[in-house]
Specification:
The protein has 237 residues and is an alpha/beta fold. It has a single domain (36-62, 75-236), classed as Rossmann fold. It has helices at 50-57, 80-90, 106-116, 121-134, 150-162, 180-197, 208-211, 229-236, and strands at residues 8-19, 22-34, 39-43, 65-70, 73-74, 91-95, 168-172, 200-204, 216-221, 224-227. Helix 3 crosses helix 4 (121-134) and helix 3 (106-116) packs parallel to helix 5. The longest helix is centred in the last third of the chain and has 18 residues, at 180-197.
């Protein structure tokens, strides 16, 4: 597969932070390739750099060395406005906490990425209603986040991530703030959407049961990714 056909490609990705006089190397010459429609889990201990990696993949932070290509485009040389447009077209984001705008309805929250991308209001609302229907919330269009349950708010957040039909959705503990039953419902929804839409998922999670439902499981340790798919799936089974 060529670089242009990969959804995400990282090469020699490195990131460090300063703690006083000390330098902490979080990512060290890390490599990652994500294929179309693939579900990838990234696991690791707290502080191992999982969220740092996710931010780099999304172009929300810059590496000290190396490159991140999204749909064949190196993010580094882009201006902030160019990077934002590329993110808007090709990436979606889902976090542990939904980050919905409380003053707007579910429909308005989901339509927001399209409106930011300068799509016509009528088109944005129509597309948002279609995606909300796909996540089972056609009866909650006009409800604000405060009027929704935790699981419903997360489903709105998922719909918002999918509304632009991105190539990949980056998720940071998407079920981490939900009770077990609701978490399983949301996870089943994500798996179904992946099958139906062919959108790639990169999921940061501390839960091996969530990780085991992905195609590939990568453990982040000492700044490197190690494929632990077989061992984690065997452990969960």
């Amino acid at each position: 597969m060529t670089t242009e056909q990969l959804v995400v490609k990282c090469h020699n990705l490195s990131r460090h932070y300063r703690q006083g006089a000390a330098i902490v190397n979080v990512l060290i010459d890390l490599a990652l390739e994500v294929y179309p429609g693939e579900r990838v889990a990234i696991i690791g201990t707290s502080g191992s750099g999982k969220t740092t990696l996710l931010n780099l993949l999304g172009g929300l932070d810059d590496p000290d060395r190396g490159s991140v290509l999204v749909m064949g485009q190196d993010m580094a040389p882009l201006s902030e406005s160019q990077r934002a447009r590329w993110r808007n077209q090709h990436l979606g984001f889902v976090y542990q906490f939904h980050h919905l705008l409380g003053e707007f309805s579910a429909l308005e929250n989901v339509a927001m990425p399209l409106l930011i991308g300068k799509r016509p209001v009528v088109e944005a609302r129509e597309r948002a209603s279609q995606v909300l229907d796909k996540v089972g919330l056609s009866h909650r269009f006009d409800h604000k986040p405060s009027e929704l349950s935790g699981g419903e708010r997360q489903r709105v957040a998922i719909a918002r991530a999918l509304v632009t039909n991105p190539a990949c959705v980056l998720m940071d503990e998407p079920t981490g703030n939900l009770d077990p039953v609701t978490a399983e419902t949301v996870l089943q929804l994500l798996l179904s959407l992946n099958r139906d839409l062919g959108i790639s998922f990169v999921v940061v999670t501390h839960d091996p049961r969530v990780a085991a439902r992905m195609d590939r499981i990568l453990s982040l340790s000492d700044g490197q990714l190690l494929d632990t798919t077989a061992s984690i799936k065997q452990l969960v089974e």
